[in-house]
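Hi there. Long-time user, first ticket. I'm pasting a complex I've been working with (about 685 residues overall). I'd like to know whether the download I got is complete or cut off, because the file seemed smaller than I expected. Thanks.
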Amino acid sequence: MVIKASNIVKRYGELLALDHLNLEVREGEILGLLGPNGSGKTTAINCILSLLKFEKGNISIFGKPMTPDAYDIKQHIGVVMQNVAVFNELTTFENIDYFCGLYIKDAVKRRQLVNEAIDFVGLNDFKKFYPKKLSGGLLRRLNIACGIAHKPKLIILDEPTVAVDPQSRNNILEGIMELNRNGATILYTSHYMEEVEQICSRIMILDKGHVIASGTKEALKDMISLGEKITVEVFGLTDDQQKAVKALPNVVSSHFNDKTFVIKSAKGKNNLENLLALLKDQNISFGKIYSELPTLNDVFLEITGKELRD
Amino acid sequence: MFFHVFKYRLKILLQDKGTMFWTLMFPILLATFFYMAFGQLGALENFNPIDTAIVDTAGDEAFMSLVETLSTGEQRLFNVKTTSMDEALRLLSEEEVKGIIETGETLSLTVSQGGISQSILKTFIDSYSQTVSSINRIAAQNPESLQTAMAILAEDLNFLEELPISRANPDSTIIYFYSLIAMTCLFGGFMGMTEVNAVQANLSYHAARMNFAPVHKLKMFLSGISAALIIQFTKILLVLAYLVFVLSIDFGDRIGLIILTIFLCTVLGISFGGFITSLVKGGEGLKTGILIAATNVSSFLGGMMQVEIKYTIDTYVPILSRINPASLITDAFYALYYFDTYNRFIENISGMIILTIIFSAATYIVVRRRKYVSI
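Hi, the file is complete. Here it is re-exported in full:
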């Protein structure tokens, strides 16, 4: 086990930020910590990194208790924070060299690592640029390079793609997967379920400082009753027609609103075929029709009764 | 590791335009302004011998002997030209002399305009005439007391006396330049604040990132504070060099001790900033505001804005002067400039060292914190 956090309780005054949080990160995996803003993701990371005091619980990393003085542990951790933390007075190269130098003393080795990090995040053309001259996406890449240049075994990324354009986001996500393929264990927090689904081998869903579900994305989706969501564009539905749809096998709920008919079904075969057959039998005219498998948002919605982005 | 952080802190601090302006450019601009405003005041206060023409019509040997005495040596009162009345009038009209003294039954003074030199000449001949008159009266009325009376009166003829309280030529405007240096030293507080913020994870994202690294926090802090100290000290030396070599301000012959004092003041200023930053709970803006306020109050009580305040505080609340960084700094400079002995200087330097130790210890207690309640 790379990280093991047991029963962590953290309060900010009256607010319970982490409620007996249990978290495990296994070697070689990308664990996604998914939760809405304010769910306790960053607090959990800061507690894991021994930056925040917490009232109760134990944290170990690489099998050793984590403390502020655990330099042998810190040596192998790379952290990329949500907020860009680079120095505007230093160039791209100097920023990475500065933070890398806190881990690597040997100047020759460090230079090589810094160049590799620059290459990895694609900032070769911007080595001598100052951060103010970099776009938001490039700045995020620099932020990542500063955290991973020393080639840590464990990389913790706290919402590294916030406010990043789609192209840069894809580059960053690709990069994270490559780091993982190169052997790094990754703890990744986000409130973007698509990202977490895309790159994480295991996911923990956090709400109000508490893990409400964890597992692979398939396992999480299996936890809920929803198996399929079918959306049909129709031009009008009578009450009887709606009742007939609701009476179809596996249908959990349906909702008609302004030409859009949404049918949620439990897991089962032929849900779409059954619906199409009914539409034909009832002579209901329809336009577009599409079927979606449940998302992590559906998982979150079913467990908590609210949307991830509420 | 120390030098790695030190090198980059140097680079970062050197590019901090705000600090660079307030701790280097602003003092230089202010010094230039002071020089233009007060530069001539000092020159006026320095006494220059008065160019005087003497027309010895009466062949007054006693008077001429006195004039000769007062016209020789570095501390002379007059530059005398003994000449005819015509020549003397020509010299006066061409402003080569300030006045003409003609001997006769009574001494007469001819001047073409008013001024300090002319007033001194008038005072001189009045005093001489009065003395001669007194001696004549005593000789006539009480001849046995003549010798004693002449000895007493002779003392009054010492028209110019230097009081050796210092090695330097006292110049009241120098206080402004010392205050300027003291103020610049206190501005080092902003660098102290920057360095405390740079290692406090609850104050900056950079600091949070550095706290994740396998480096002892105090080692990073010491690297940063060393860089700040070197930069601040260098900047004040540049200000001093500008004052000495460009503005030709005379700080006396204790320049080595002045530089030592500047170094200690720099350390005090930086630790003062660190101390205030450590004490204040809140964001960087609040800390900056309180540091500015504290620096200004300290400077005000130290007499940097109105020198009488310092004397008032020294008289009525002396303890405040002993714990006020600005008071100690300015007083150390004054002591170096005005006094031959080192007692008062050492007293001030000791006070500064004690304050630095207290400020540094308090800062250490806060900075050593490794875990935070909130970030």
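A couple of notes from our side: Chain B has 16 helices and four strands. Chain B has two domains: 2-42+169-367, 48-156.
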